C-alpha cells in the first residue's frame, strides 16, 4: 500500500520538514499571542493578590487607582476601622513614572505604604524591609536595581534596601515600594519653581495678604503645600465576615466607593485590558486563517505532485475513502510537526519578550486540537482534487 506521507518523507524529507517548521513558526506566534493575553491577565491580578486586601476603598464614583484618579484623605482609614467586620486598614498610593536605571529610562509604578500594614510587599528575595521613615525603597528584581543601589524619585535619592519578585502593575511595570510619606511627596508635592510661583501668586492676592493679617497667608500656604491624600485604603475583614457585606456598609455609611478584591479583579481584567484582549483575539483569528490557508496550499500542491501515484491507486482498485485517508494523514502529520516546533519556539523565545508571557498547558492542548482540526479542514481541497484524478493518467504519461 502506498502511503503519501511516507513517500514525501522518504523522497522529499527536507521540503516536508521545512514545511512543518514554517507551519510551526506560525503556531509558535499564535501560542505567544495567547501567552501575551494570559500574561496581561496575570499582571492585573498579581498586585491585587500581593496586597492581601479583601476590600479596596476609593473615591466615590471612581473605579479605583488603576482605572481612574482617586483621592482620599489619609485619616479616612480611622473611621473605617470603626466599622463592624473590619480587621485592618491601611493607606496606599500608586504612581506610574519614569526612573533612571543604568543611564536608561525605566517605567515603574511607585507604591506608598505604611510599614507593617496592608500594601507592604508580601515577601523579599534579598535585603530587608523598610525600617526608616524616609528614603528607603524595595524594588522588583525586574527593574535591574540591586540592594545598595540608589534610585532617584522626583528630587530625592532612595537607597534600595530590599528586592522582591514578580511584583508588577496591571500594565506589567515593575513595582517600587517606598514609605507612604515619601510617596505622598513624590505624587502630590510640586517642584520648587512651581512652589515659588504659587507663593508669589498667593502673596499678591489682597484677600489673603491684607495688612495686619499675616497669619492668614501663612495658613493658606501651609494648607496648599502640605499633602494628606492617598489613592486608596486597603481593608482586611475579620475571619467569618463576608467582604461584600463590609464593602456595602462602607459605601452606605462612609459615602465612598468600596470594591471587593473580586470586583477589582473584574475592573482590571474586563475594563482595562478588554481592548487589548479583543485585538489579540482578532490577531489570533487572522493567524488561524493564514495558517489554514498555507496548510491547504501546501497539501494541495503536494497532492498534485503525486497525480500518477494516485491514478495508479485508483487503477488497482483502491477505494476513494482510503485515498482521502492518506491525504488527511499527510495533513495531520504536518500539523503534528508544526505544533511541536511551534511549542518549542514559543517556549524558547517567550523569556526574551519585554512583556510577561504566560504559556499555559491548557492553551497548548487547545492549540494542538485546533491545529489538527485546521489541518483536517485544509486537506479537503486536496482530497477533492485527488478524487477527481482519472485512473487513465496512470498509463497516459
Average of pLDDT: 85
SS-based class: alpha+beta
What string, H for helix and E for strand, traces the elements in order? HHEEHEEEEEEEHHHEEHEHHHHHH
Q: How big is the Rg?
A: 31 Å
State the domain count: 2
In angstroms, what separates the terminal alpha carbons?
22 Å
Question: Could you name the ranges where pLDDT drops below 50 across 5 or more consecutive residues?
Answer: none
Number of H- or I-type helical stretches: 13
- What characterizes the major β-sheet? 10 strands, mixed
State the share of residues found in helices, binned by percent: 40-55%
Which outline best applies?
Answer: elongated
Which strand-content bin applies to the residues?
A: 15-25%
Strand tally, please? 12
Brief synopsis:
The protein contains 13 helices and twelve strands. The chain is an alpha+beta fold and 397 residues long. The chain has two domains: 4-43 and 272-394, no CATH class; 50-271, no CATH class.
Amino acid at each position: 500500500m502506498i502511503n503519501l506521507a511516507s513517500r514525501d518523507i522518504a523522497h522529499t524529507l527536507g521540503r516536508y520538514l521545512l514545511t512543518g517548521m514554517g507551519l510551526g513558526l506560525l503556531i509558535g506566534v499564535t501560542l505567544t499571542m495567547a501567552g501575551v493575553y494570559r500574561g496581561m491577565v496575570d499582571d492585573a491580578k498579581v498586585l491585587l493578590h500581593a496586597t492581601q486586601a479583601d476590600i479596596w476603598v476609593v473615591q466615590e464614583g471612581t473605579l479605583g487607582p488603576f482605572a481612574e484618579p482617586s483621592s482620599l484623605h489619609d485619616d479616612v482609614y480611622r473611621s473605617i476601622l470603626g466599622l463592624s467586620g473590619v480587621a485592618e486598614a491601611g493607606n496606599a498610593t500608586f504612581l506610574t513614572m519614569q526612573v533612571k536605571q543604568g543611564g536608561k529610562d525605566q517605567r515603574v509604578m511607585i507604591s506608598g505604604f505604611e510599614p507593617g500594614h496592608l500594601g507592604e510587599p508580601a515577601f523579599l528575595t534579598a535585603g530587608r524591609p523598610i525600617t526608616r521613615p524616609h528614603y528607603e525603597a524595595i524594588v522588583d528584581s525586574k527593574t535591574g536595581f540591586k540592594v545598595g543601589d540608589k534610585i532617584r524619585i522626583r528630587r530625592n535619592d532612595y537607597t534600595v534596601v530590599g528586592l522582591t519578585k514578580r511584583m508588577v502593575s496591571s500594565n506589567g511595570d515593575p513595582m517600587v515600594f517606598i514609605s507612604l510619606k515619601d510617596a505622598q511627596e513624590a505624587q502630590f508635592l510640586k517642584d520648587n519653581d512651581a512652589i515659588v510661583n504659587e507663593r508669589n501668586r498667593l502673596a499678591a492676592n489682597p484677600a489673603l495678604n491684607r495688612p495686619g493679617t499675616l497669619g492668614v497667608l501663612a495658613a493658606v500656604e501651609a494648607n496648599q503645600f502640605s499633602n494628606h491624600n492617598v489613592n486608596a485604603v486597603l481593608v482586611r475583614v475579620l475571619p467569618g465576615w463576608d467582604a461584600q457585606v463590609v464593602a456595602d456598609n462602607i459605601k452606605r455609611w462612609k459615602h465612598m466607593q468600596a470594591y471587593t478584591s473580586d470586583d477589582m479583579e473584574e475592573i482590571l481584567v474586563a475594563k482595562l485590558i478588554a481592548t487589548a484582549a479583543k485585538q489579540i483575539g482578532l490577531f489570533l483569528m487572522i493567524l488561524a486563517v493564514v495558517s489554514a490557508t498555507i496548510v491547504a496550499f501546501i497539501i494541495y500542491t503536494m497532492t498534485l505532485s503525486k497525480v500518477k501515484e494516485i491514478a495508479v491507486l485508483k487503477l488497482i482498485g483502491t477505494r476513494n475513502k482510503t485515498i482521502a485517508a492518506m491525504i488527511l494523514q499527510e495533513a495531520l502529520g504536518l500539523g503534528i510537526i508544526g505544533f511541536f516546533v511551534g511549542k518549542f519556539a514559543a517556549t524558547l523565545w517567550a523569556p526574551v519578550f519585554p512583556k510577561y508571557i504566560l504559556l499555559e498547558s491548557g492553551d497548548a492542548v487547545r492549540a494542538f486540537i485546533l491545529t489538527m482540526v485546521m489541518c483536517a479542514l485544509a486537506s479537503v481541497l486536496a482530497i477533492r482534487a485527488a478524487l477527481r484524478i482519472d485512473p487513465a493518467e496512470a498509463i497516459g504519461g
